[in-house]
Amino acid sequence: MKEKLVEKSCADFAAVLASKAPVPGGGGAAALVGALGTALCSMVGNLTVGRKKYAAVEADIRSALKQAEKVQAELLELVDKDAEAFEPLSRAYSISKDDPTREVTLENATRSACQAPLEMMCAICKAIELLEEMLEKGSVTLVSDVGCGALCCGAALESASMNIFVNTGTLRDREEAALLDVQADTLLAEYLPRARHVADEVARRLRNGG
């Protein structure tokens, strides 16, 4: 059985990302960074539960942890899902331009390649919501980790969107391309500022002593 990308060590993943191999690429990197941002959210939650000072919000923190676990797992799955979708697209581009099946094959592969990054964006947006909650309810001693998580998720969100736009630009079905663009733009417009707000608030607290 072929080894999954997410089962590689950090060093091996970085090495294959840097190599001439077609996958992983920007999409896989976006999903992984989003998963790391979500993991930071979970770390803050796990180090908050059980502390008397935060007993009043413990149920909320535990709920957030369960949600973050699901988001993290989804994003890790999307590292490989994105790679699986890119390989048919890569093959489609290599089909001879004289082949009558090329156009349809390429269109279908391009459409499929948009799905994983769109799913990434939706998952990352959920992570950003959880980081907002952790900023307000998590241990104040771990606030810098919340900020780092928000920065990771913001970067991952924007990176995932680029992996949509690179494909919608070549779709022949312009109505479908426009719909996908609108979906991505809508998520960017709402959640990039929210991630940035979390990071900025963390920076403010750190620089001003709380």
Description:
The protein is mainly α and 210 residues long. It has one domain: Up-down Bundle (Four Helix Bundle (Hemerythrin (Met), subunit A)). Helices cover 77% and strands 0% of the residues. Helix 3 runs antiparallel to helix 5, helix 5 packs antiparallel against helix 6 and helix 6 runs antiparallel to helix 7. The chain starts with 9 loop residues before the first helix and ends with a helix. The model has no long low-confidence stretch (mean pLDDT 95).
State the domain count: 1
**CATH architecture assignment name:** Up-down Bundle
Distance between the amino and carboxyl termini: 51 Å
Question: What fraction of residues sit in β-strands?
Answer: under 5%
The amount of helix comes to over 70%
Q: What's the CATH first level?
A: Mainly Alpha
Pick out its properties.
Four Helix Bundle (Hemerythrin (Met), subunit A); 77% helix; 7 helices; mainly alpha
